[in-house]
Amino acid sequence: MHCSKFHSPILALLLCFAFIASAPAQEFYPGFGSQPTSTTLQPAENMEGAPLNVKELATHPLLSSTIDLTAPTEDLWQRLRNGFSMPGLNNELVLKHQQWYLSHPEYLRRVVERSRPYIHHIVEELEKRGMPNELALLPVVESAFNPTANSPARASGLWQFIPSTGKRFELKQNWWHDERRDIVASTEAALEYLQTIYEMHGDWHLALASYNWGEGAVQRAIQKNAAKGLPTDYSSLTMPEETRQYVPKLIALKNIFSSADTLAELRIPVVPNRAYFATISPKKPIDVRLAAQFAGMSVDEFVKLNPAHNRPVISPQSTLIIPADRLQSFQSKMDSHNAPLSSWQLYTTKSAERLDKLAPRFGISLADLKRVNSIKGGIRLAAGTSVLVPANGGEGLRVMPEQIRAPEALPEREARGKHGRNGKKAGKGRNGKPSVAKAGKSVRHSAVAKGGKKAAPAKNVRPAAKSNGKKTTAKPAAKKPAKRR
User: CA of 302: how far to CAs of 72, 160, 188, 362, 409, in Å?
Assistant: First the structure.
């Protein structure tokens, strides 16, 4: 039948279409008008006259149109991704840092292993506050997740607080411990600070720039652009090179951790989505060595969880961080321990004493006595000064863990910088640095004074380079901002 025999063109077209869709037509177009199929062709020599082998594929299941981001997951990285909400940043710097991380997978694996005890706690705290989970990766940029990291600008800990900003957010820094290195306290302070500067700018990129450079500096840069009629977003501001690289580093990490396939290719270790540690108050002084023993850990592992302590003995007012699965065992061992929990004691001088005369009385060398108490110079102790000395015939010194690294000078003394308690300049030593004390001069160097009361810490009167306290160097080097919080 030929369509051309029909006088009505419309009728002819309809009949032609019916012919094509008929059963004979399907022999020439096997998939026409039917469900999707797959065909397997016969070898070429057998093709002539051979029927086609038709095989139907099973229908793929329909995917849900929504994903429940609150559904529990065993993989912390999946939970992290579910909470990503920070705007992206598409520029060459992000690409540069992303390529660097991708080409150094061993570095990422090392940092992830270092983060394992801390990152679940950080994600928990971020979610409580409704903050972007990307911020859990910020310690990678700040400290490579090293809780004992220190910068030349005296920033310390996972979140790299300088002393003045630490005090601003109530991080205690005294003879016994430095909460800038405390995992729980410093995380709370860092997130509070980030929330504050986000509320100031209403933009996470500007908030992060403020965390690195100082909110006052960022605000001035915004005002300068606004006065010139220029955009005031993060990418448009004139800023130090360190700050310009800062946000792209975090966004590059976000891009990498956004892809489960990329993490698998880089062989990034899986981190379980469960709490790693719990906290406990010892109520009594306890040696770091003994606390590690009760926790079933090496001293090195224990110090990584409790990096804030400056002394080999932990103050009873401190909070200890113990692996969650060992907390009950730790408490039981501490309660059943019959001997003293500490092999150190505080000795308070009744009159001015020289260290070289005091040390032999407690079976400790002068050098070790200075090291334990962070004393610099051949100084005498003023009456009423307390120092840490071994108890039980020097037993404390023999078991003092090498991992304890007391600060080079007391936080109270460091905070004065170039100025003393009254704001006057201190003298300089031979190396040009402010001297802590001169030989032969009496000095009260301990945090513990007469009557068991702690001496009042010196006020930080050192002029800051930035209004927010993030820069503590009074005269920063040219073109380089003083680092940081």
Answer: 30, 21, 21, 28, 24
Any catalytic annotation for residue 199? no
Dihedral (CA of 348, 349, 354, 359) sign: negative
Identity of the residue numbered 441: K
Residues whose CB falls within 8 Å of the CB of residue 377, separated by 6 or more in sequence, listed in order: 435, 436, 437, 438, 439
Output the pLDDT for position 374: 85
Whether residues 85 and 159 fall in one domain: yes
Report the DSSP beta bridge partners of residue 205.
none
Q: What is the largest CA-CA distance in the chain?
A: 128
> Band of the pLDDT at 421, cuts 50, 70, 90?
very low
257 pLDDT above the threshold of 50: yes
**For residue 317, what are the domain limits?**
277-336
Q: Are residues 305 and 364 in the same domain?
A: no
Percent of the chain with pLDDT over 90: 58
CA distances from 166 to 124, 160, 173, 375 (A): 22, 9, 8, 23
Is residue 460 one of the residues assigned to a domain?
no
Choose the catalytic residue: 27, 106, 142, 192: 142
Domain boundary among 336, 357, 381: 336
The backbone region for 469, taken as left when phi is positive above 0, alpha when psi lies in -120 to 50, beta otherwise, is left
Mean pLDDT over the full length of the chain: 77
Q: Is residue 407 part of a domain?
A: no
- By CB atoms closer than 10 A (0-12, 13-18, 19+), residue 449 is middle
Give residue 334's pLDDT.
Answer: 95
